[in-house]
Amino acid sequence: MYPPHVLMVAGDATISAMETARLALDLAVTLRHDGHGGVADDLADTAGLAAWVAERAALLDGAQDLGTPDESLLAAVRELRSAVRSLFARAVRPGPPSAADAHRLLPEDEAIRRLNAAAARVPTAPRLSWEPDAPPALRDLPAGTPPAADRLTAALARAAISFLHGPDRELLRACPAPRCVRYFVKDHARQEWCTPSCGNRARVARHHERHREQRGGAPGNPSG
Ligand SMILES: [Zn+2]
């Protein structure tokens, strides 16, 4: 379980720490397979970031007050994403990392420095609440009145820190299906692929591979 101090709230909604930490995975998978053998980026521009944030406004501190994201926020979120993906690559070892950015991972100490620096943009303070007939609840809330963009960046960084420190890290995998570049958290011990469609594609590819080997053909062999 996540310790209570990683709980964050947006507005008045109390969000589970697990849901919040999964924002880190959400951020990582904005780099995705484009369906044609390449890589698409949901955060390629500020419009993409605005759409991504709007879909998660309930989970993401600062989202409601943000207005239209500007270039500096886009750069901050993309920098954070490259830190998260670089540390995901470490987390999935000895398995291979996602192929999308395996060739341009950050040094781990730089990735960790970025995460911590982004989280430190907004200090938080614990707040106790104690409703009738309920146990006392502890939440960490942003202290002071930082700009919404800083709150959002810091919230994403805190989510990533919670994810990497929490139980999901050991269940993280890079999907090994052909062309897939997704990281995913295993829902059950035997899960191999991020989605059933990736599983089907991987099985078809293995089937063709076996067939080719049985016929003694190599790729490009006219008889195979
Ligand atoms: Zn996949």
From TrEMBL:
<dbReference type="Pfam" id="PF11706">
    <property type="entry name" value="zf-CGNR"/>
</dbReference>
<feature type="domain" description="Zinc finger CGNR">
    <location>
        <begin position="172"/>
        <end position="211"/>
    </location>
</feature>
<dbReference type="InterPro" id="IPR010852">
    <property type="entry name" value="ABATE"/>
</dbReference>
<dbReference type="Pfam" id="PF07336">
    <property type="entry name" value="ABATE"/>
</dbReference>
<feature type="region of interest" description="Disordered">
    <location>
        <begin position="205"/>
        <end position="224"/>
    </location>
</feature>
<dbReference type="InterPro" id="IPR023286">
    <property type="entry name" value="ABATE_dom_sf"/>
</dbReference>
<protein>
    <recommendedName>
        <fullName>Zinc finger CGNR domain-containing protein</fullName>
    </recommendedName>
</protein>
<dbReference type="InterPro" id="IPR021005">
    <property type="entry name" value="Znf_CGNR"/>
</dbReference>
